[in-house]
Inverse folding.
């Protein structure tokens, strides 16, 4: 069981997986995004939707990779798998104690965070006239975007793990998310 964010992180992980490892199943929050990535030309291995397998048929999942969002961890959805080993893929795994706090067997450091110059270049390359900042260094980024003549705004989202961010704020480098 690999927990990672449904939009972007899951597809990044899947793009690097050797399809020969065996069956790959995805949570219902991940699979529609996989289809969108494939339609956009991104090569991903074949995946199946977990919900397509009857809940009583746990044997189908033995030896499989299952990709799910962190919100599935500890929920009733997990009961269908029987015994499993779990992991979390996130840039937060770099911080001491995060794997223990998340309660997973393994942690894989995989960050989508970008440095300030990288974000400036990426935003400029899009040609966007309006940019919405959703998390990370919201206030300084919004101010900088406005100074560049862009229509910048911000809104609060419910993705990410604010509890980890709050716990780790003293350890977190000055990075801004590029998701």
């Amino acid at each position: 069981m690999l927990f990672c964010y449904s939009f972007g992180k899951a597809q990044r992980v899947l793009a690097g997986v050797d399809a020969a490892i065996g069956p790959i199943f995805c949570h219902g929050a991940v699979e529609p995004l996989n289809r969108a990535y494939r339609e956009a030309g991104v090569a991903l291995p074949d995946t199946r939707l977990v919900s397509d397998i009857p809940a009583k048929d746990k044997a189908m999942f033995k030896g499989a990779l299952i990709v799910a969002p962190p919100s599935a961890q500890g929920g009733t959805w997990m009961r269908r798998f029987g015994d499993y080993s779990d992991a979390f893929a996130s840039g937060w795994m770099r911080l001491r104690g995060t794997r223990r706090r998340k309660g997973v067997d393994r942690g894989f450091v995989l960050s989508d965070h970008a440095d300030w110059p990288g974000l400036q270049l990426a935003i400029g390359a899009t040609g966007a006239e309006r940019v919405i900042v959703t998390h990370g260094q919201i206030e300084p980024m919004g101010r900088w975007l406005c100074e560049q003549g862009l229509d910048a705004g911000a809104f609060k989202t419910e993705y990410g793990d604010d509890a980890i961010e709050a716990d780790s704020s003293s350890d977190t480098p000055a990075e801004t998310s590029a998701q």
